[in-house]
Amino acid sequence: LMSEHSSSLTHMEDVEVALLKDCCSCLAELTQGPCGDNQFIITSNPILLTGLDNILSSLFHDRISKELRLQTKAAVLNLLAACLEGRTDQFIHQRISSEISPLSFERVRSFLGLGALEYPNVVENALVDLANIYDELCVLP
Fold it and tell me: Are 34 and 82 in contact (CB under 8 A)?
């Protein structure tokens, strides 16, 4: 996760990808409520945001199940949506916009489309989070 490039994620095993997913889910839980201090801490860390961007854009290795790849990307989207939840300032919005590539959001949207029939619940929830992220980020000047 701390790598500058998403290519390092292709070397991960199932258990490591599952741990990434669980970490993102845990961080999302810590920001929901919303908890402004935790939202601020998470989005103030450019290394973490770069890691989240890498997860969104990574293809992972084919040995990782499609379901786990979808769940991991969905967990990242849920975390980002939770960080934006209830914010009246633009700090979090600007941090996410500056560190997460718009191309990563487009790639994950395409990837979600590939799993829609097999894993409709995971994909539906992820698409809701992605729509919320887009809605929040479009308020930027």
Answer: yes
92 and 43 in contact (C-beta within 8 Å)?
A: yes
Give pTM, 2 decimals. Answer: 0.93
CA torsion sign for 16, 21, 23, 26 is negative
Take residue 124 and report the two structure tokens written for it: 């539906």
Phi (first) and psi of residue 132, to 5 degrees: -65, -40
Tokens of 72: 């991991």
How far is residue 121's CA from residue 99's CA, in Å, rounded to a whole number? 28
Question: Contact at 8 Å (CB) between 57 and 3?
Answer: no
* pLDDT tens track for 3-56: 455 667 888 999 999 999 999 999 999 999 899 999 999 999 999 999 999 999
Dihedrals φ, ψ of 61, to 5°? -90, 150
Angstrom distance (rounded) from CA 62 to CA 57? 15
Q: How far is CA 102 from the centre of its chain?
A: 12
The number of CA neighbours under 13 Å toward the Cβ of 10 is 8
